């Protein structure tokens, strides 16, 4: 169909144009591949970050609650079978909890309390009492001092998630094998520096107390989902109640 | 990248789909089990204690 006279000239021109187009196409293809790989990397990064959120806010809770339930069961079992009291006979297993914290303002359920505030302890979905930088005074010792505790605000059980629901006057109850320690919240510090270790003092001056007494201090991070500041709640012991055979909770928890 | 993986998986489309799923699950497992627990303490989201450090 093509004309035979002018074809030679046209052919070379066309071939050159094709070659140029091919080169351009090849360069374009490489660029397109680079862009698509880059895009896929971005999508991957987005998915990984999304998964990290899922991990932080959901999966760590699943793992922590499982661990906490197991350890709580063990403590309750030990109590029921009279094996290890907080100060009782037998080997004192520091990994086992020393008791349970009940804070009706944060909802039903109890929070196992263990020794230490390292991530390893707290990540099991429990509250830990401070051993450092200021040693907590255990209520079971009967001595005056500050029973200072920390727990996670988000993830890892998020046991202190609703700490902002605790108002002055709200009860905080600590349950041991044979005693209910009933505290009453008297001061809340909604935001403080994470270096403010004075809040853990035996007589926490910032809460307005001057004299030694039986205090309890809850600390966690704030605002939610970050660790920029610390949130502190102080309570003072109101009374103690002996645990009866049925472990009837004190009036505050009913 | 994903296209490359897909092309290099053996079998027909179904087998590849199943293998892809296995790969995804494996990656998520490694992330949840090893990578995230390692990364978490390095990120400033979950420090709850007051201290002097």
TrEMBL record, chain A:
| Keywords of this entry | Hydrolase, Membrane, Transmembrane, Transmembrane helix
- Molecular-function GO terms, alphabetical: hydrolase activity
Transmembrane stretches, by residue range?
30-58
Give the Basic and acidic residues compositional bias ranges.
1-21
The organism's superkingdom is given as Bacteria
Q: Where is this region: Disordered?
A: 1-23
Classification via InterPro entries: Sortase, Sortase_Class_E, Sortase_dom-sf, Sortase_E
Which Gene3D superfamilies has this protein been placed in? Sortase
Q: What is this protein called?
A: Class E sortase
Origin organism is Streptomyces parvulus
